[in-house]
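Practice record 12: protein with nicotinamide-adenine-dinucleotide.
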Amino acid sequence: MNNKIDAETNPLIAKNIKFLNRKQKLMINNEWVEPSSGNFIDVVDPATENVVSHIAAGNKVDIDKAVNAANEAFKCWSKVTPLTRQSLLLQLADLMEKNAERLSEIESIDNGKSLIIARNGDVGSSINFVRYMAGWATKIMGSTLDISAPHMPGAEFHAYIKKQPVGVIGAIVPWNFPLSMAIWKIAPALATGCTIVLKPAEQTSLSALILAELIIEAGFPPGAVNIVTGYGLEAGNSLVTNPGVNKITFTGSVETGKIVGRAAVAEMKRFTLELGGKSPIIIRKDANIDTAILGASMAIFFNQGQTCTAGSRLYIHQSIFDKVVDGVSKFAENINVQPGYDAACGMGPLVSDEQRNRVFGFIKSGIEEGAEVITGAKKLPGAGYFITPTVLKTSQKMKVVQEEIFGPVVCAMPFDDDEEALTLANDTRYGLAASVWTQDLRSAHDLAANIHAGTVWVNCHNVFDPNLPFGGVKQSGIGRELGKASIDGYLEDKTVLMKLN
Ligand code: NAD
């Protein structure tokens, strides 16, 4: 690995050189602090393999400090008026908007994604989400209920349920949408009066550190948000096991999610798990074929296929199978694979060498089990973790069909009727999302009702809205983010019963 920042040939790095060259510290109590270990982790630009910055390797000592700060802050933040919480979140959204280009550039350098996706998919949607969650701060409602208490005849009562913040939140996020994943947790936590310690992914922590700057500038009190970078086994595990944390909200792989869930239960912490997926796309013979080809292609190749909802299993009615596979393959072959910050980039590099090796491992296993490579499956020569978008013809029981690859690889398979499509779509341990492509309303509703997934899109894929709950069934997770469901996840019901006579 080249141990040098590439400011001479990369205009984006030149523009952000001051930030990248600064010593990245931890943000605890609105202060920038050195990691107690004194250790730092290389930040690698996946397009060049150059080291472009260093983040602090936080450990248990740092996590303990951050959780203490969050507990101290909770005493005042949970009492702050809803209108103040709303105003501060709106102030944060304005600052993010002012810094949108800087955030997008850093996201592209850090993750490898195209600048266009970083601007719209990551930063733009994060700003919208903060504004949406700001609105909830002033709309949290409990309820009053009439009760019977039959064993106390003649007694009069006043009973109500009050919504109260859960407390200190421990948030752990992955590297595919670093800013969005962080903001999906920070914004509802702050809106409800919780305080939070965030552990970003070690591969992509930079945008969270810019966000930390903006949180301080917006005027949030010390300790309301704390950001501790570092490795999962060290900083992440210390956060999950810290007794001062009341709820863990985790986004990442199923395997890590199970470890996190078990650790949370050991202390009876509340937890939300947003995990992996192997989302099916069903294209019926009555679909608008051109629209379906475009939609299926975008569903898998968007963000280099590193999307939890990537449409990675493509079930096509046998009468149109060859036409659709041909269309998706042509789309794949026309994608410009190059650094995310190049203007003509259609698809950037994968996030790391480890991830690229993992994706190739899956492709190899598919070929060994008899999959046919229609296009792709190649590394680009030279530096950078690039891979060409890949279309495979597969069969249902192959590992490449059953396991999440998290890369630009789609597995195409034919079906005869809706019943078979449904059986194949549901034959998976995952249940995050799915899409159905058809012009028949009744079939659309039938399939939507019977696919086992947290979200089913019809004639579209990967369309998110702050108001629509998002999350998985089966092994894709527990709980929901976005929408009112997200707010509910940061609140506890307190029952109050008052005898009046
Ligand atoms: P990962 O599980 O390896 O890591 C996720 C986070 O957990 C990282 O911050 C990591 O440092 C931390 N971590 C690792 N081991 C830990 C431990 N023992 N204790 C505590 N924290 C630990 O996942 P990844 O490779 O970073 O991300 C890819 C995965 O995330 C994919 O499976 C993808 O589907 C999933 N994902 C899901 C959603 C969703 O909303 N459902 C969204 C994005 C990504």
